[in-house]
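TL;DR need structure tokens for one chain.
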Amino acid sequence: MYSPVKLVSKYIHYFLTSSNGKGHGVHSPFVFDFIIHVLNDKRAFYAHTQIEYLRNKLLQDSRTIEVEDMGAGSAQGTTRRRLISDLTKYAAKPKKYGQLLFRIAHYLQPAHILELGTSLGISTSYLASADTRIPVITLEGAPLVAMEALKNFDTLGLQNIRLIQGNFDNTLPRILAATGTPNLVFVDGNHRKAATLHYFEQLVQRAGTDTVFIFDDIHWSGEMEEAWEQIKKHEAVTLTIDLFFLGLVFFRTEIKEPQHFRIRY
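>> reply
TL;DR here they are.
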């Protein structure tokens, strides 16, 4: 992981070199429409209020639980105790990006959604609330964290979520074999190059023109930046959007030459 100072310098560079997020100078009709109707959509939804109310409660939760970190393909994880409040503060995506995930799902209307890395379920809840008719499968490695997430889904009344607990190396192949690749995938489970590329290679085999992969923290470390650059070069990828904290990957067949955007968000 980059130091806070290094990450800030990376963000400043991104901010100065990215497009302004207004759509000016963007010649791709799909990207222009995505900027206007997703990135710049400031509407508030009732689901946002419910999820943020839950987040605030979790930020005040002083209970501790054991968190088992499976790691990248490790057969034996490490366990440590964490405060629920700390998990919420440091592991959950902030409001701004949770609501962006909601808008992406609302805009694209995927047939089904897959998330790698449930944590306490804040991001999952945003994805699932975009349209409660869309099934969401979320994978979580730590058993006790998964139990807390299930409680949170119940609190929000979300019944379109299926949580599968276990090491991604075991659960992801089974899910893909049973359901194929979902139209929307949010990868937030392991911030290491080898693991990220391993998941990508499994997912990309079934990606279609309406598929989007969303990778978390693509500039979190040198490893993650290397993984992001390698993903961008894959022959199936026709479009990427770098939002600094999130990287979006598309496979749209109407785009003949690969296009890569850095958009200020």
